[in-house]
Amino acid sequence: MKNKELQKEILTISEGVVSTAMDITLLLTFYGLEAIMKPPTPKGAWQARGAAFEDWEQINYDTIKNALYRLKNKGLVQYTRETITHPQITKQGLRRLKSTIPIYDKKRVWDGKIYLVTYDIPKEQKNSRERLCYYLKKIGCGRLQNSVWITPFNPQGVLEDFIERNDLKGAVIISSVGDKENVGEETLKELVSRVYCLDDLHWQYLQFNKKYFRYKKFKAEVRQQVIFDFLSTLKDDPQLPFKLLPSDWAGTEAYKIFKKATKGRSASDLKKV
User: Fold this and answer.
1) Which of 54, 147, 198, 235 is most buried, with most CB under 10 Å away?
2) For the chain, where are the E strands, in sequence order?
3) Contact 153/243 with Cβ under 8 angstroms?
4) Count of CB atoms within 10 A of residue 216's CB?
5) Residue ranges per domain, the chain?
């Protein structure tokens, strides 16, 4: 991948996922910062290694060096005699990372229902309606119609709290349908595929698989590309229950490639933190 292309990948994942240089540096530390950095010079300055970042001066030297300094001061990374050339992420750093990057869910427990969230909010409460729509999207709901959203995961608890805090009692209704039922003329699989645009997401994962399936071993620069490519797609993935996905869902193979490239270490490990 050319320098500008990798820069674009990093900026893509930064939008709405990793929003600061500190978080980007924390992400790279989690997956092995030594892949892009040389050991300190005698003067203690970090220098970039490899073609991937050599033209991105704002990231490869000043930004990352300063970010590492701030991460260390905040207790998010640490150095020891054994790790002086490779900073190690702390438990506090892992907790911060967990809150900033998408995490692949390998289990996706599902109760077999699709939940419909409908609302009737007067035009005079436009701000409340916009806040609700933003929140519904944030918790993984998909818009079915203007005032109807769906999700395969029970939103009752989190929505009740939101409704109370925003004085929307009586304006929002939550109902459900079972996996044996249809919604209109569509099966649940057909419905979620349309609402969540799964064809487009499947295609993105297919492109990822096509690009990396041939690698038996991943060099440092390729590992970087795999990490940013996968996470930039995962951040747009609603991670629906596997039973609602196509049998040939390309995201499953993409995750296997990602795990292989990261040597078994993935963001899903952060769930244990």
Assistant:
1) 198
2) 77-78, 88-89, 113-119, 142-145, 148-151, 172-178, 182-183, 186-187
3) no
4) 5
5) 3-98, 113-178, 196-272
| Element spanning 82, H or E | none
The CATH number assigned to the domain with range 113-178 reads 3.30.70.240
Residue 71 CA to residue 141 CA, distance in Å, equals 34
Provide the CATH number for the domain formed by 3-98 in this structure. Answer: 1.10.10
What is the C-alpha separation between 138 and 153, in angstroms, rounded?
13
Tens-digit pLDDT profile for residues 28-75? 788 775 444 544 443 333 343 333 333 344 455 567 778 888 888 889
Tokens of 1: 């991948």
If we measure between CA atoms, which residue out of 103, 101, 106 comes closest to residue 252?
106
Q: Is 228 exposed, middle or buried (0-12, 13-18, 19+ CB in 10 A)?
A: buried
pLDDT tens digits along 213-262: 998 888 877 887 888 889 889 989 999 999 999 999 999 999 999 988 88
